[in-house]
């Protein structure tokens, strides 16, 4: 499972560390690129700014997207991802503390592949991250976008 990249879009350093720790604890050793806000996530995906030298033909296997981000919201990031032919098929898992069904519906309307509430309990959080990792990195089959790039 270690050849596929995960893009973690998370502004809360504690939640980011918990996610990374849960992945490692569960022996999911994939490279994880952490973006602290929506603009940085889009810069990574589209090869802009400090990520201008990134090989754009290689997209992450999955984006773990928090919704409450500084500046650009997670919903806005999701809209940008879905609006671009290079990323429109990229799997996006919204990983949030919210359990609001209306917010979940909004995420799905904008193209989220999954909406997962972050458990408060550390053991439950670790198990949730394990399940996300196993599904999106091992079981899920990738697609090809309109440009012929495997996502």
Write structural notes for this entry:
The chain contains five helices and five strands, in the order E-H-E-H-E-H-E-H-E-H. It is α/β, with parallel strands linked by helices and 151 residues long. Strands 2-1-3-4-5 form a five-stranded parallel β-sheet, with helices on both faces. The mean pLDDT is 90.
Low-pLDDT segments: none
Count of all domains:
1
Count of beta strands: 5
Main sheet: strands, sense, barrel: 5 strands, parallel
Separate helix tally = 5
Q: Strand-and-helix sequence, N→C?
A: EHEHEHEHEH
Which strand order spans the largest sheet, edge to edge or round the barrel? Answer: 2-1-3-4-5
Mean pLDDT: 90
From the helix content, strand content and strand pairing, which structural class follows? alpha/beta
Oligomer: single chain
List the helices and strands and how they pair.
Blueprint: E1 6-9, H1 13-25, E2 32-35, H2 38-46, E3 62-65, H3 74-83, E4 92-96, H4 101-109, E5 114-117, H5 122-139
Parallel strand pairs: 1-2, 1-3, 3-4, 4-5
Helix pairs in contact: 1-5, 2-3
In a nutshell, what does this entry contain?
The chain has 151 residues and is an alpha/beta fold.
């Amino acid at each position: 499972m270690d050849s596929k990249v995960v893009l973690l879009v998370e502004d809360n350093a504690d939640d980011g560390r918990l996610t990374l720790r849960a992945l490692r604890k569960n022996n999911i050793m994939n490279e994880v690129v952490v973006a602290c806000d929506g603009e940085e996530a889009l810069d990574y995906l589209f090869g802009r700014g400090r990520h201008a030298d990134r090989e754009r033909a290689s997209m992450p296997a999955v984006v773990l997207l928090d919704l409450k981000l500084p500046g650009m919201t997670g919903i806005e990031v999701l809209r940008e991802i879905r609006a671009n032919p290079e990323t429109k098929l990229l799997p996006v898992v919204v990983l949030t503390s919210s359990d609001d069904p209306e917010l979940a519906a909004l995420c799905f309307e904008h193209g989220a592949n999954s909406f997962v509430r972050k458990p408060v309990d550390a053991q439950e959080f670790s198990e949730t991250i394990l399940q996300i990792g196993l599904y999106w990195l091992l079981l899920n089959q990738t697609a090809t976008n309109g440009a012929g790039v495997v996502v």
